[in-house]
Write a structure and sequence with these properties.
192 residues, alpha+beta, two-stranded antiparallel sheet, two-stranded antiparallel ribbon, 6 helices, 6 strands
């Protein structure tokens, strides 16, 4: 167990998972307007709930990014995009084991972590496929991408209510269309 440190009058532990879920739900926009998973030029960041300290705020922001990522996948499913098969995280952030686990937990699915996670590798895979180096894009990826590991979501529904609360708030504000919100709720119920 992590040893508490003093943060004003509220203790802060050194374990980021101590704030899973955070005391508040954050919709983390850096500036006005949203383009995906919905179009809302007037959308702004918001916070629902009460935060205990800066660590709780940081956790809420990270979780908010993961919740929006989940909404993006629900929206893609709503549009009919196939979401089956392996799911791989890329980019420099995959160096954080906590971030990988948090995202896997929020998405509720197993994810793969590549050894070389920079986006340039993805472009190289596309180039190899385009240059007729592989019969299929997935074949090119399998040949070129080496995995560092796999992250399985931890059991439990600790992010279900925060997700449904965020979806409801986005819909209440008129930013998230009702059919997309209904689809997100239905997918959540299916996964329970």
């Amino acid at each position: 167990m992590a040893t508490p440190r003093s943060y004003g009058s509220t203790p802060v532990t050194s374990s980021p998972s101590s704030y899973d879920p955070a005391g508040a739900i954050a919709y983390p926009l850096a500036s006005r307007g949203e383009r995906f998973p919905f179009v809302a030029p007037d959308a702004t960041a918001f916070l629902l709930g009460t935060l205990a300290n800066d660590a709780d705020q940081w956790a809420a922001l990270l979780q908010g990014v993961g919740l929006v990522e989940r909404l993006c996948l629900d929206y893609l499913d709503h549009l009919g995009a196939p979401l089956h098969g392996p799911f791989t995280f890329t980019g420099g952030a995959v160096r954080s084991d906590h971030w990988n686990q948090l995202r896997a937990d929020i998405l509720g699915r197993e994810v793969r972590i590549p050894r070389a996670a920079e986006p340039a590798l993805g472009m190289a895979v596309l180039a190899a496929y385009g240059a007729d180096g592989a019969a299929t894009l997935s074949g090119a990826a399998e040949r070129m991408v080496r995995l560092r590991g796999t992250v399985r979501p931890r059991r439990g529904e600790r992010f279900t209510e925060p997700y449904l609360t965020m979806v409801a708030e986005l819909e209440r504000r008129g930013w998230l269309p009702e059919p997309v919100a209904a689809h997100a709720r239905a997918r959540t119920e299916e996964s329970r």
